[in-house]
Amino acid sequence: HLLLMKEPEKYPVKFLYIVFTRPVLVFVLLAFMSTLSAQPPVAEDPDGWFFRAREVAHEGKTGEARRICRQILEIYPNYHDVKILKARTYSWEGQFVRANDLLREVLQAQPSNKEALFALIDLLIWYEDYNEAIKFLDIALADDPNNTHLLYRKALALKESGDELAAAVLLNQILDLDPTYAEAKELLDSIESARLLNHIGLG
User: Fold this and answer.
1) What pLDDT score was predicted for residue 191?
2) How far apart are CA 174 and CA 146, in angstroms?
């Protein structure tokens, strides 16, 4: 603690008390301060802070992730990946309106942003807005008609909105493209089983 003893006027009284009475806490505090000082300011390293926000978001610290996102967006308001990440954290917490508004804001500014489009599709399916999801799925599929993940989401949305025949057609298309797509096989089996039971019931 020689530096602190030489220049005590630079440090608050409470901090000096901790230094001389609780050395373990001091070690933790200094380690934390050095970690903060090791990362450049947001203005100098927005990508590094974005990666940090994404990391803490996936650790479940959505509030901290959004705080970092907000700091980045104050300086770089058109950093769309940050807006998309922020929207995803809202969707994970059930805040549909906030997530929806952010994703549509990105798509309005950049209609070709596939990450925002896919995130919005997932959001709409999670919150059972299937007709709206199908609308955006058609937009995505226009550029990538054989994308099995998009086709599966459309089949799911069609099935949940009551059009099981159209869903079955898409699921067969998926299995032609990728016979190992287990979720498509399971969903198709469930549709066919339900149709069989209905047929037996009517018979």
Assistant:
1) 94
2) 8
Which phi and psi (to 5°) does residue 76 adopt? Answer: -125, 80
CA 20 remoteness from chain centre: 45
Give the Cα separation of 176 and 182 in Å (integer). Answer: 12
Provide the token pair at 69. 């996102």
Torsion of CA 160, 166, 170, 172, to 10 degrees: 110
The residue-averaged pLDDT of 183-203 equals 80
* C-alpha–C-alpha distance, residues 80 and 125, integer Å: 22
Six-digit token string for 63? 């509030």
CB contact at 8 A, 127 and 96: yes
pLDDT value at position 202? Answer: 52
Nearest CA to 65 out of 45, 79, 86 is that of 86
Tokens read off for 24: 């373990």
Asked whether the beta carbons of 117 and 107 are under 8 A apart, the reply is yes
Place of tokens 């508004």: 101
Estimate the crossing angle of helix 114-126 against helix 148-160, to 10 degrees.
30
pLDDT tens per residue, range 68-119 = 999 999 999 999 999 999 999 999 999 999 999 999 999 999 999 999 999 9
Q: CA–CA separation, 147 vs 55, rounded Å?
A: 28
pLDDT at position 12, please? 52
